[in-house]
Amino acid sequence: MSTVSQAPTASGASYLFGAVQPQDILTREDMGEEERMMARSLKDFAAQHVLPNAEAIEARDWSVVGPLVEKAAELGLFMAEVPEEYGGLNLSVLAIAAMMEGRSDMGPISSTLYAHQGIGTLPLVNFGTPEQIDKYLESCMNGTRLACFALTEPSSGSDAMNIRTTAVLNDEGTHYIVNGSKQWITNAGWAQMMILFAKVDGSKFTAFILDADTPGLTVAANENLLGLRSSSVCGLTLENVAIPVENVLGEIGRGHKVALCTLNLGRLKMATNCAGGGKKALACAANYAAERLQFGQPIANFGLIQMKLADMAARLYAAESNAYRTAGLVYTKSEAMRAENAGSLDARLSALSEFSIECALSKVFGAEMVNALADEALQIHGGYGFSEEYAPAKMYRDWRITRIYEGTSEICRLSSMKAMLKRGSQGALEIHAAVDSANAAEPDTAGRAPKDLAEALATVANLKALFQRLLGAAFANVGQEALLNNDRQPILGSLADIAIEIYAVESGLLRVLKIRGQHSDEATRIPELLVWIYMDRAAGRVRDAATEIITDVFDVPTEALQDVERWLPLPRARRGMRQEVVTFLTERAGELPDIVN
């Protein structure tokens, strides 16, 4: 298994208020053979069993989908996160991240498999009683029982705790009588087991295990979706559904623990899943650009196409870097707690809670990256991209949902910054001390482009100082409590944008510095170029977000706007870097460098 020497000392969001070194992070290159074997096995499974049946899967033909679910179970997919004492594989968070990158290879069946494996089965593993696990888990692992996660309702999407489904204990004290409805439930049309959320006595948010054949449960027809058309996504109606008291999952009134643990882990997984999708979009675009001739030459020779391809690669590299960095933070925290004899569930819950901010920010970045790359792949294909006969159209449709499920991008932005403020008020982050220090500081590399990677680290430090100064300005001119008001959401959203860009550019930079310590300059040439290209994009996005904050918190923002420029780097010349990146991509079928530490 891979290890990182310093990462266990990290705490959630601490990267925004202190320096991080290359040895402090885990990168994709650090994956061990076990993790790589998992990714390869998924790719082989998809090529042999899934893609040849894509048309039938898209038609939701259960005679095809059902056997594939069982074949995936034989591969060990549904055992991956189950503890060994329950007959599972108990793979690390890092191995799961690699597995989730491979999810993108699963194409039309990916949503079905991973909704069952993740949000369907894991709540049972993490919170089930021995009796519940004995009754349900084996069939979930072998694929004969499909599971789903029934939380969302017509009136409560992002406001998940505001569900209206009720559960009332019957007079005999044997069953909870449940009434209400659910919406957008993946696998609902096929599931035999549901993780259902309701409010006991109308107020106590609680999770239940519901057998799908229980009288009073009605499953609606499949939704007509924009993308992921192979998925069974349905609404549910519950009319006096009787759930045995022994099917309460976790504790009465503590269902939020089940939901939030599942969502945090889901966001971490989604980040690496989006990285896998981005690779497919980049390869699709690069290969087409190399083959498509216009005006007597490949369109990959044209400057605007080169700009698109190089920027796509830079965004993808940054997204992959922060996804695996986040997985490494959770992995090493979990391993450290396990070594201290903490229970594995306690370790996982604590690690996910600790790094919920990074999980949310990585998910936002990955989702917006893969959507942008799908869009650019379609654009590079021109008119052909608008045809369902070519891959970009389906990419464009299927990846759009990533900005919505597992927490919308807007909710993830707000929740991450609110969590950061909460950690500061609890003393887990020295926010106010950092703000005071930043207000007294001067930029180290003011007025020039960084000349090397060491100066690039100083540039990242400047971006952090700017974030802290802007946070201080918001405290001083708006007030910390007032920042939580709905009409001040744009400030929190813009702070989140800066935090996202800092995390992305720092993750890529630290990754390159780490692999440069173990590989030749030639081997790391393209990764370094991708970091330089992305740094300029990040600086521009930080400038835009800083402008939004300043014009909101200052009546006369002139001086503050001028101050922003002192903390931002000047851009480097990019045309030559882009040409070199595109040459690399077109010669290697659109694939990024694959380096093993």
Verbal overview:
The longest helix is centred in the middle third of the chain and has 37 residues, at 255-291. The chain has helices at 33-50, 54-58, 62-74, 93-102, 110-120, 122-127, 130-141, 255-291, 303-339, 344-354, 356-380, 391-398, 409-425, 431-439, 453-477, 489-516, 525-553, 558-567, 575-587, and strands spanning 147-150, 166-169, 175-186, 193-200, 204-211, 217-219, 233-244, 248-249, 293-294, 297-298. It is built from 19 helices and 10 strands. The strands form 2 sheets. Strands 1, 2, 3, 4, 5, 6, 7 and 8 form an 8-stranded mixed β-sheet that branches. Strands 9-10 form a two-stranded antiparallel sheet. With 597 residues, the chain is α+β, with helices and mostly antiparallel strands. Helix 8 runs antiparallel to helix 9 (303-339), helix 8 (255-291) packs parallel to helix 11 (356-380) and helix 9 (303-339) packs across helix 10 (344-354). It folds into 3 domains: 7-141, Butyryl-Coa Dehydrogenase, subunit A, domain 1; 147-255, Butyryl-CoA Dehydrogenase, subunit A, domain 2, CATH 2.40.110.10; 259-587, Butyryl-CoA Dehydrogenase, subunit A, domain 3 (Up-down Bundle), CATH 1.20.140. The chain is globular, with a radius of gyration of 24 Å.
